[in-house]
UniProtKB/TrEMBL annotation:
GO terms for biological process: L-histidine biosynthetic process. The gene is hisG. Feedback inhibited by histidine. It comes from the Bacteria. Belongs to the ATP phosphoribosyltransferase family. Long subfamily. This is ATP phosphoribosyltransferase.
Length: 225
């Protein structure tokens, strides 16, 4: 694939970050229209293409240099970094800045009837998660052995379905935990959205465009503080 002369930015297709990511780029003066059926949205006033993909795919696309920039939760970024370091795959990217949306925490949670003292209450038990690497790092630090139950989605139903004893999942308002008869016991990682750039060297005009977007993002975020 030839290197695109247009700047490629990956954003989440649908989910907690997608609306805010689009809003941020629009407030930086990038004009585009999103067609829900299309993966790519071309900007009409700047040489920029938006790739609308699964959030979990964004860090890898940036680290492999497939896209130039990505807007992603720090939790997903860190998870992918540990995963790739473990596998010896390229895991480098540059975090340009933290953004002012996408606040969430990755937490351990257990069923309401579970009597929880501390993380050692989970010794030998099974924990469902979509973030096996962040969970492993935390449990290793605490010296606790547990068993994995890897689920890409619907993590919150795992205990009731008899798949696991507890979960390690993202919490934002806490509504999902409550609706599933679970309570939060420990926060293992706090996260915001951030914008990342690939480490690939860019032609001057493309890097100038990245710098322009970044300085506008700085202005937009600062204006709201
Ligand atoms: C997370 C998490 C819960 C929900 C929690 O999913 O998996 O489903 O948010 O939010 P709440 O505390 O406000 O109820 P999210 O949509 O972030 O990501 P995903 O689609 O990648 O699982
Ligand atoms: Zn996801
Ligand atoms: Mg979810």
């Amino acid at each position: 694939m030839s290197q695109s002369t247009r700047l490629r930015i990956a954003i989440q297709k649908s989910g907690r970050l997608s609306k805010e990511s689009q809003k941020l780029l629009k407030s930086c003066g990038v004009k585009f229209n999103v067609n829900e059926q299309r993966l790519i949205a071309h900007s009409d006033n700047m040489p920029i293409d938006l790739l609308r993909v699964r959030d979990d795919d964004i860090p890898g696309l940036v680290m492999d240099g497939v896209v130039d920039l990505g807007i992603i939760g720090e939790n997903v970024l860190e998870e992918e970094q540990i995963e790739r370091q473990t596998l010896g795959k390229p895991a480098d990217c540059v975090k340009l800045r933290e953004l002012d949306f996408g606040a969430c925490r990755l937490s351990l949670a257990v069923p309401n009837e579970f009597s929880y003292q501390d993380a050692s209450s989970l010794e030998g038990l099974r924990i469902a998660t979509s973030y096996p690497n962040l969970l492993r790092r935390y449990m290793q630090e605490k010296g606790i052995n547990y068993r994995d139950c890897m689920l890409k989605g619907s993590v919150e139903v795992a205990p009731r379905a008899g798949l696991s004893d507890g979960i390690c999942d993202l919490v934002s308002t806490g509504a999902t935990l409550e609706a599933n008869g679970l309570y939060e016991t420990e926060v293992i990682y706090r996260s915001m959205a951030c914008i990342i750039q690939s480490t690939q060297s860019q032609p001057d005009d493309k890097q100038a465009l990245i710098n322009k977007i970044l300085s506008r993002i700085n202005g937009v975020v600062r204006a709201k503080e």
